[in-house]
Amino acid sequence: MPFPDLCSSAPLVLDGGLATELEARGHDLSDELWSARLLHDAPEEIVAAHEAFFRAGAVIATTASYQASFPGFGARGIGRGDAAALMRRSVELARQAAERLEPDRPRWVAASVGPYGATLADGSEYRGRYGLTVSDLVGFHRPRLEVLAGAGPDVLALETVPDLDEAIALVEAVDGIGVPAWLSYTVADGRTRAGQPLAEAFEVARDHEDIVAVGVNCCSPAEVAPALAIARQVTGKPVVAYPNSGEDWDAHCRTWTGASRFPGTAASAWAHEGAAVIGGCCRVRPDDIADLAATLP
């Protein structure tokens, strides 16, 4: 089933933190590949995590490819051909989970495309400003976008983008790829993580038909509503919202601190702001998604 027209559909429930769920199932994801390591080591566990979110009410699964890249796999001794096969597997596993549960119920697969900084495994995705040119970033993203698009996802999730340069690169890299995409920034204090105004950031996607929605993810829930208002005003496109739990990530210690502030009840307010895709990111569990789904029509 093709991905729905987000301009006319009711809000779609996205899943939550895939890596969080895998960690809850006993997996140590502290290495540089994060959840992408399990594409090789324990693919059946990825299917189980997807199924947990589908059972909770999600209708879109994001794949375990956020931190997957040719350089990242190469550093682990995985050649280019095998790396491409693992990226394709991320889509296949999500599709398998979607079809295993109530195969007639509409469900979709979003191929996760994380920022360049995620592959550095040092918190750079929360800072941006890598010292690379837009051309460098296009060269990094385009090959894995081609592989993921070739695996047949319903949509590409260009997510946790920290700054304007990477957004420009991703919009260029996804041009003509043949799969619709959404572009989602990680934000703080009403700006991109690199400090740029959100109006300027969202403007990048305004006139690109391949980008079917824009929004925010992996940010504090409190950042969502104001960012969505700017995104809609600037682009006129449907918007996506999937914040983290509200806890804080300590990149040095590689751990989360503080208490969860994920408000499932806020989903209806985000829908009122025009959010067409609503879910969670890091530290958001299936129970949280179930609470969120229960507040939507």
Automatic annotation (TrEMBL):
Cofactor requirement: Zn(2+)
E.C. no: 2.1.1.10
Pfam families per the UniProt record, alphabetical: S-methyl_trans
GO molecular function: S-adenosylmethionine-homocysteine S-methyltransferase activity; zinc ion binding
SUPFAM superfamilies the record matches: Homocysteine S-methyltransferase
Cofactor binding summary note: Binds 1 zinc ion per subunit.
GO BP term, example: methionine biosynthetic process
Domain Hcy-binding: 1-296
Binding site for Zn(2+): 218, 281-282
Keywords, alphabetical: Metal-binding, Methyltransferase, Transferase, Zinc
Coiled coil (UniProt feature): none
PANTHER family the UniProt entry points to: HOMOCYSTEINE S-METHYLTRANSFERASE-LIKE ISOFORM 1 (PTHR46015:SF1), ZGC:172121 (PTHR46015)
Protein name as catalogued: Homocysteine S-methyltransferase
Organism: Saccharopolyspora erythraea (strain ATCC 11635 / DSM 40517 / JCM 4748 / NBRC 13426 / NCIMB 8594 / NRRL 2338)
